[in-house]
Amino acid sequence: MSPKTLYDKIWDAHVVQEDADGTCLLYIDRHLVHEVTSPQAFEGLRMAGRKVRAPEKTIAVPDHNVPTTLDRAKGIDNEESRIQVEALDKNAKDFGVHYYPVSDVRQGIVHIVGPEQGWTLPGMTVVCGDSHTATHGAFGALAHGIGTSEVEHVLATQTLIQKKSKNMKVEITGKLKPGVTAKDITLAVIGETGTAGGTGYVIEYCGEAIRDLSMEGRMTVCNMAIEGGARAGLIAPDEKTFEYVKGRPHAPKGAQFEAALAWWKTLYSDDDAHWDKVVTLKGEEIEPVVTWGTSPEDVLPISAVVPAPESFKGGKVEAAKRAIEYMGLTPGQKLTDIQIDTVFIGSCTNGRIEDLRAAAEILKGKKIKEGMRALVVPGSGLVRAQAEEEGLADIFKEAGFEWRLAGCSMCLAMNPDQLSEGERCASTSNRNFEGRQGYKGRTHLLSPAMAAAAAITGHLTDVRDLV
Ligand SMILES: CC(C)[C@H](C(=O)O)[C@@H](O)C(=O)O
Ligand code: SF4
């Protein structure tokens, strides 16, 4: 048998039919659904008189539009948002899919709820009408976003028409230095490869620094595969993965678990498998990083200065000029001199319990800078409950943070959590595009620990200076 990558193995196990030109029909194991990209898909089914083919493999949860303030049971003011959430309530009921409504403690960001509930398992194909479906790749699943017409196709048939991507290996060797986290790895990789570096590829992240990460950290890394342009990102499952999955509500139990485990243990890239592209970074050389511009590839170590546009090549010179202007920065200015108005800790990149622990560790016994607006939005109701039990919520509140309910929130500002014009945010989310967090708002992406550090000092800060 010819050697295979992990991606090859999962792909081969799911091909239902292959055409001469390589177009395949893939079986889909899990279909996650949120309120933004599903209304037309369900409507299409309804109009055609079709059913959801596998409601038991379809999991829906509202996340993007939901308010995160404590009074959210009052309902949603914005009409468009309200219509989308109400449509999901109705569609989930009418079509009989698994559903976690806003009133359910298990509600949260779809990419946090899936793994938490044990829906996401190694070796699976997982899709969702959402680009950050890549998150689930942390379990050694082939997971990626799909468009609304594909959502309808998967709902109706539990299959997806796909062509295979190429194989890319991103290896992070050695150990990370203290203060350096999964978020710094994933940003550093995009800084290195650019936002188009992964185009046409599925990335497998490997190497000692990746192995050393917790499942939460691995999810953070895979989450941003999409910002690096890749179709998906994945990590071979190991004992940490199996341990995380075991006992989750929807994970297999008993003999079924043992049978699944036997297969999961075969899910790794063979030694002599072929890679179309390889990128290697040394773990010990990665610093805590932040973004200075309006693209996730605008990444620099926190010790750096705002770059001069002329230091870039070709088309990037103009883009850098515009980004620096939009961000209200000056070339040569130290990144640590950039003053921050708002801190947002949350999102499917960094809204898990470990992220909250990392931020709370820095904030313990401290207060945020006067005048700072700071919010923590746990990724799910269960993350929130756990953080309360561990005393993290008290640390956040005592420091001056708002302690919110679960949702996407200020990651993309589809609910009332938005930046105002010119407001500058240190954010643990994954996208820093113009206006992403509110009209003319400015975003600096960083890790939860770095976000906490900025909240305390009022400017971008090397977290290692605070510990
Ligand atoms: C709304 C949704 C389609 C979108 C995505 O696909 O990523 C959102 O989650 C985002 O992060 O921009
Ligand atoms: S948290 Fe942000 S990136 Fe993740 S699904 Fe929601 S909007 Fe998209």
UniProtKB/TrEMBL annotation:
UniProt remark on cofactor binding: Binds 1 [4Fe-4S] cluster per subunit.
Cofactor(s) named in the record: [4Fe-4S] cluster
Binding site for [4Fe-4S] cluster: 348, 408, 411
Keyword Iron part of the UniProt annotation: yes
InterPro entries linked: 3-IsopropMal_deHydase_lsu, Acnase/IPM_dHydase_lsu_aba_1/3, Acoase/IPM_deHydtase_lsu_aba, Aconitase_4Fe-4S_BS, Aconitase_4Fe-4S_dom, IPM_dehydratase_rel_enz, IPMI_cat
Catalytic reaction annotation: (2R,3S)-3-isopropylmalate = (2S)-2-isopropylmalate
Pathway: Amino-acid biosynthesis; L-leucine biosynthesis; L-leucine from 3-methyl-2-oxobutanoate: step 2/4
Pfam families from the UniProt entry: Aconitase
Transmembrane in keyword set: no
Domain Aconitase/3-isopropylmalate dehydratase large subunit alpha/beta/alpha residues, every copy: 8-458
Keywords: 4Fe-4S, Amino-acid biosynthesis, Branched-chain amino acid biosynthesis, Iron, Iron-sulfur, Leucine biosynthesis, Lyase, Metal-binding
GO molecular function, one term: 3-isopropylmalate dehydratase activity
EC number: 4.2.1.33
Subunit and interaction comment: Heterodimer of LeuC and LeuD.
Family to which the UniProt record says this protein belongs: Belongs to the aconitase/IPM isomerase family. LeuC type 1 subfamily.
Function recorded in the entry: Catalyzes the isomerization between 2-isopropylmalate and 3-isopropylmalate, via the formation of 2-isopropylmaleate.
PANTHER family in UniProt: 3-ISOPROPYLMALATE DEHYDRATASE (PTHR43822:SF9), HOMOACONITASE, MITOCHONDRIAL-RELATED (PTHR43822)
Protein name: 3-isopropylmalate dehydratase large subunit
Taxonomic source organism: Tropicibacter oceani
